[in-house]
Amino acid sequence: MQSLKEVSNETETAGATPAKASKPAKGNAKPKPDESSSTLDNSPGTGIAFLPVEVQTIGVEEMAVIFRKQERSILRDLSQAPDRLPPRLKLPGTRKPLWLVTTVATWLAEHQGSAATSAGEAT
To answer: pLDDT tens digits, residue range 73-119?
Structure first.
């Protein structure tokens, strides 16, 4: 099974788009600063590794990869069956569903045997 960091990196590289070529400045317009001069490493494959693991977050796209579901299924579960997902991170002033990586990892570890147990009870 892949770690959350590997899944996050795969998701990011799969959705990565090539950088756009900057257009030459016209007239007296100031050229835009080069994005590569940023202090954060946003290159493909780096994921969210620059943040401490305690504050790394993942969104619906990454949750869909982890749970092998479609994004709309994650959103539906979030509103109609929240017990099927780990507790989400609720930030003031935002409605975007986010989860802490550590919360997801802990929740998955706690529920690892429950699927096998419930499948055994059904037979």
So the answer is: 999 999 999 999 999 999 999 999 999 999 999 999 999 877 656 55
Look up residue 28 and give its two tokens.
């007296």
Q: What is the pTM of this model?
A: 0.55
Distance CA 62, CA 92 (A): 22
- The domains of the chain, with CATH numbers, are 1-9+53-111 (1.10.10)
- The structure tokens 């579960």 sit at 77
CA 47 to chain centre: 9
* 74 contacts 63 by C-beta, under 8 angstroms: yes
Retrieve residue 95's tokens. Answer: 């409605």
Whole-angstrom distance, CA of residue 43 vs CA of residue 32: 19
Given a contact cutoff of 8 angstroms between Cβ atoms, the answer to whether 56 and 48 are in contact is: yes
Q: How many CB atoms lie within 10 A of CB 4?
A: 20
Q: What is the dihedral of CA 3, 5, 9, 15, to 10 degrees?
A: 90
pLDDT in tens, 81-91: 999 999 999 99
